[in-house]
Amino acid sequence: FNLKKHYKIEHEKVSTICKECERKFPNSARLRKHIYLTHEFGDYHCDHDGCDFSSTCRLELFNHKSAKHLLLKKCEFNGCDVVVPRNNYHVHKKIHQKSRSFQCSWPDCGKNLYDAKSLKDHVRIHLNFKRYRCKWPDCGYACEQRTNMITHIRIKHFKLPHTKKRQLELNISMDSYPNPNEYIE
């Protein structure tokens, strides 16, 4: 007896169809979820400050919030009016949640940082640690951040303008240049 074969023959041929939009689903659980998210009607209001959007469809409210409000997040701490990209909010939140309890022990520094990773990155500055090295012949440039290395290669070796904005203004296409990552060690 082969359970997978049995399931395919006896159960997959019976598809569940949404009566509202005629979309097919592999099982009734998926159909129920679809109906709940897409077609359940009620009175749905956007809870974002200053927004008066409302809809009778939960999916429309979800799409509205995704498009209009989820890219930015206002800081929730009293007295802080900072608005940051949602994906960086956790970084900003550290300012309020933690004291700068990670202190650099390098002589004459004493800088306080929020977390162990920030301290580790900071100490690398004192150690003159250069993680990335340029592989361009006879160059020898090294730096801590990959973005700085890519900028170095673009400007110094590819002779491109200092900013991508200027590059676009001059109609310079990167298609005729090699990938800068090929020159990073």
Report the average pLDDT across residues: 80
Helix content: 25-40%
Give a short account of the largest sheet.
2 strands, antiparallel
Q: Classify the secondary structure makeup into a structural class.
A: alpha+beta
Tell me the strand order in the biggest sheet.
1-2
End-to-end Cα distance, whole Å, is 56 Å
Strand runs, count: 10
Count of discrete alpha- or pi-helical segments spanning 4 or more residues? 7
N-to-C SSE series?
HEEHEEHEEHEEHEEHH
As residue ranges, the low-confidence spans are: none
The rough form would be described as extended
What is Rg?
27 Å
| Share of β-strand residues | 5-15%
Write structural notes for this entry.
The protein has 185 residues and is an alpha+beta fold. 37% of the residues lie in helices and 15% in strands. It contains 7 helices and 10 strands. The protein has helices spanning 3-10, 28-38, 58-68, 89-97, 116-127, 146-157, 164-169; strands at residues 16-17, 24-25, 41-45, 54-57, 72-74, 83-85, 102-103, 112-113, 132-133, 142-143. The strands form 5 sheets. A two-stranded antiparallel sheet has the order 1-2. Strand 9 (132-133) and strand 10 (142-143) form a beta hairpin. The longest helix is centred in the middle third of the chain and has 12 residues, at 116-127. The protein starts with a helix and ends in a 16-residue tail after the last helix. The relative contact order is 0.06.
